[in-house]
Recover the amino acids of this structure.
C-alpha cells in the first residue's frame, strides 16, 4: 500500500449503473467518505462523450483512481479508458480495467475461489494462485446467460409465445404492460424493438415478482438462468481443480433477489455438492478503490464511514408530526374526509404567503422564454412527477414547442410510474443531467424539493448556475438550511402532513398549484391567452375540437356552425380562425 493520507476514487461501471466511492487512505485503513450512483457506463456501448460527462460529474480532487468498466477487455481498451480518465484527472495515478476485475476483487480479495456475477449481464471468474479461468461474460448479444437482460428477454418471449399458443391474458403479461405503461402487446413489441440492454434488464423485478407469485413458466425461466450459471461455475471449478470451491456471489440479481440465490444454490448443489456459497465481502466500487492502492503488501482494513446526511442540520417541516392526525387510524371514513378537507386551508395560506415570490417567478420565467430561453423543472419522487406533469401540459394547452418547458425527474422516465426514491440522493447525477440536457445561459432551472434538502435537485441547481442559467427553488420547508441563494425562492409553509412525511398530500397540492400559477402566468404574459381562452390549444380530439368551436363562437359572436367552418378552413388552428389568418406576434420559438 501507498503512503498515508491520500484521496482514492473507486469506479465500477456496468449495464445498469456506475457506482463510485470516494475514500481516504491513512496508511492503515480505507475510510469511505462519499459515494453514489450514476448512469450506466460500458466502454463499448457508451459513447466517449457520454463517458466523459459521467466521469466529469465525479469528485476531482483525488490522488488515485481505480476505474473498472464493462466492455474494457483488451489491452487497447485499458489504454483507451486510462487515457480518458487521465483527461479528467490529469494529476491522479490511475488503474483501469474491466468490471470483471473489480468484481473478482470484491468477491475474493487476495484469496482463491470463484466469483459469480449476475447483474444486467453475467460472468464467472475463478482464481487459483496465479491461474485465472473464465466463463460467460460475452455480452448481451451472444452471452450473458443468467443475467437480468437474459431473463427479461426470455420472459418477453414467453408472453408472446403464450399469447400465440393459448390467446390467454396472463397476470405476468399484465404486470409487464403496467410496468412499462403500455396498453397492448403490439406496443410491447414496438418498445422491445427500440429498447436498449439496460431498459430491457430493468424488467427483471417484474420477472421475480411473477416467480414469487407462483407463475410456473417464469419460475422455469429463473431456474434455467440459474442452471446455466451453475454449469459455468462447475466448469470453472473443474478446470482449476477445485473439489470444494469457495463461491462468492455479487451483482444486483443476487443482492436483491433471494429467490434467485436459492435457485442458484439448488442448481449448484446438484452439480458441485461440496461448493461453499456466500455473498461477496465488499462492493465492486470499494474493490476498485482497493485495486487503485494495491501493490505487494497485504490489503487494508476497510472501515465504512457512517452515513452522513447530504445537507446536515436541515429542519424538515414535512417530516414533523401533525397533532391533528395522531388518531388517523381510529377515524371513520367521514372523519377522514372532514380532516383532509379542513387541512387544505393550510395550502391556501401557504400560497398567499408566497404571492410576491410567485409573481416574481412569473416575471422571471416570462423574460427568459421571451428571450429564447427554456424552463426546466427538476425534482425527485412526487415533486419530480409534478414537474413533469406540468411541463407535459404546456404543448396541448398553449400550443408551445415541447422544448419550451421540460421536466427532469431523478431516476428518469421509469420513476414516473415506479418508485425510484433512492435516485434523489445522487447530487452528482443531478449535475450530470443538466449537462446532458444541454442547459445553457438564458434557460431557467426550477428545482422542486418539498423538503428543501433533495441532493439531486441541489446538484442540478449548482450545475445550472455554473452554466449561467437562471435558477429558482420551490420548497415546502421555510426553515430549510440556506447554504446557497437562487434568483427566485418560493418556500410554501404547508406544515406537517396528515400522514407524516407523505409530501404527495398538502405539499404536493401546494406545489401543483404553484407550478400552475408560474407556467400559466408566463404563458398569459407571452400572449398565448385571449381573455380567459386558450387560443393556441391543440384541437387534437373530439372534446378539444368542441372546445375550440365554442371558443371561436364566443369570441366572434357567431353560430357554432360558422365557427366550425372557420376552424376547418384554418386547419383547426384556433388563433388563425380568430384572426382571419393574421396571427398575433408570437415568437416562433414559442410555437409548437
Amino acid at each position: 500500500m501507498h503512503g498515508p493520507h491520500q484521496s482514492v476514487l473507486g469506479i465500477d461501471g456496468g449495464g445498469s449503473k456506475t457506482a463510485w466511492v470516494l475514500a481516504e487512505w491513512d496508511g492503515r485503513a480505507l475510510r469511505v467518505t462519499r459515494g453514489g450512483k450514476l448512469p450506466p457506463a460500458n466502454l463499448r456501448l457508451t459513447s466517449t462523450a457520454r463517458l466523459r460527462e459521467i466521469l466529469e460529474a465525479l469528485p476531482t480532487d483525488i490522488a488515485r483512481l481505480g476505474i473498472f468498466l464493462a466492455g474494457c477487455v483488451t489491452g487497447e481498451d485499458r489504454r483507451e479508458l486510462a487515457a480518458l480518465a487521465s483527461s479528467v484527472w490529469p494529476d491522479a495515478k490511475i488503474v483501469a480495467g474491466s468490471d470483471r476485475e473489480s468484481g473478482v476483487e470484491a468477491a475474493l480479495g487476495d484469496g482463491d475461489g470463484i466469483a459469480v456475477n449476475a447483474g444486467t449481464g453475467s460472468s464467472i471468474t475463478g482464481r487459483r494462485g496465479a491461474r485465472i479461468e473464465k466463463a460467460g461474460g460475452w455480452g448481451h448479444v451472444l452471452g450473458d446467460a443468467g443475467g437480468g437482460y437474459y431473463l427479461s428477454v426470455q420472459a418477453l418471449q414467453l408472453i408472446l409465445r403464450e399469447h400465440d399458443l393459448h390467446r390467454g391474458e396472463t397476470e405476468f403479461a399484465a404486470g409487464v404492460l403496467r410496468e412499462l405503461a403500455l396498453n397492448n402487446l403490439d406496443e410491447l413489441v414496438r418498445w422491445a424493438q427500440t429498447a436498449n440492454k439496460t431498459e430491457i434488464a430493468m424488467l427483471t423485478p417484474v420477472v421475480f415478482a411473477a416467480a414469487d407469485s407462483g407463475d410456473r413458466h417464469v419460475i422455469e425461466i429463473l431456474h434455467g438462468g440459474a442452471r446455466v450459471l451453475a454449469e459455468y461455475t462447475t466448469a470453472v471449478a473443474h478446470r482449476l481443480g477445485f473439489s470444494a470451491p469457495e463461491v462468492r456471489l455479487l451483482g444486483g440479481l443476487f443482492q436483491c433477489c433471494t429467490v434467485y440465490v436459492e435457485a442458484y444454490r439448488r442448481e449448484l448443489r446438484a452439480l458441485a455438492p461440496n461448493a461453499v456459497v456466500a455473498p461477496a465481502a465488499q462492493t465492486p466500487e470499494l474493490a476498485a478503490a482497493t485495486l487503485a492502492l494495491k501493490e505487494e503488501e497485504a490489503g487494508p482494513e476497510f472501515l465504512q464511514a457512517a452515513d452522513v446526511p447530504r445537507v446536515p442540520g436541515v429542519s424538515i417541516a414535512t417530516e414533523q408530526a401533525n397533532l391533528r392526525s395522531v388518531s388517523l387510524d381510529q377515524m371513520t371514513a367521514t372523519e377522514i374526509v372532514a380532516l383532509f378537507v379542513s387541512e387544505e386551508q393550510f395550502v391556501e395560506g401557504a400560497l398567499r404567503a408566497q404571492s410576491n415570490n410567485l409573481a416574481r417567478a412569473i416575471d422571471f420565467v416570462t423574460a427568459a422564454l421571451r428571450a429564447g430561453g427554456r424552463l426546466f423543472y427538476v425534482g425527485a419522487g412526487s415533486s419530480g412527477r409534478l414537474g413533469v406533469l406540468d411541463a407535459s401540459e404546456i404543448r396541448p394547452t398553449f400550443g408551445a414547442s415541447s422544448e419550451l418547458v421540460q421536466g427532469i425527474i431523478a431516476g428518469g422516465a421509469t420513476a414516473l410510474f415506479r418508485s425510484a426514491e433512492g435516485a434523489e440522493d445522487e447530487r452528482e447525477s443531478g449535475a450530470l443531467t443538466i449537462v446532458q440536457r444541454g442547459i445553457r445561459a438564458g434557460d431557467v432551472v426550477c428545482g422542486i424539493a418539498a423538503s428543501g434538502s433533495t441532493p439531486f435537485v441541489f446538484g442540478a441547481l449548482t450545475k445550472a448556475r455554473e452554466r449561467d442559467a437562471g435558477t429558482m427553488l420551490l420548497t415546502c420547508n421555510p426553515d430549510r438550511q440556506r447554504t446557497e441563494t437562487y434568483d427566485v425562492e418560493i418556500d410554501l409553509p404547508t406544515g406537517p402532513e396528515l400522514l407524516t412525511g407523505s409530501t404527495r398530500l398538502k405539499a404536493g397540492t401546494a406545489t401543483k398549484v404553484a407550478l400552475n400559477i408560474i407556467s400559466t402566468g408566463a404563458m398569459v404574459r407571452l400572449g398565448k391567452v385571449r381573455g380567459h381562452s386558450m387560443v393556441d390549444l391543440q384541437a387534437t380530439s373530439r372534446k378539444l375540437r368542441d372546445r375550440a368551436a365554442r371558443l371561436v363562437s364566443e369570441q366572434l359572436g357567431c353560430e357554432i356552425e360558422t365557427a366550425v367552418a372557420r376552424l376547418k378552413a384554418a386547419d383547426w388552428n384556433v388563433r388563425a380562425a380568430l384572426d382571419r389568418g393574421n396571427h398575433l406576434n408570437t415568437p416562433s420559438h414559442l410555437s409548437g
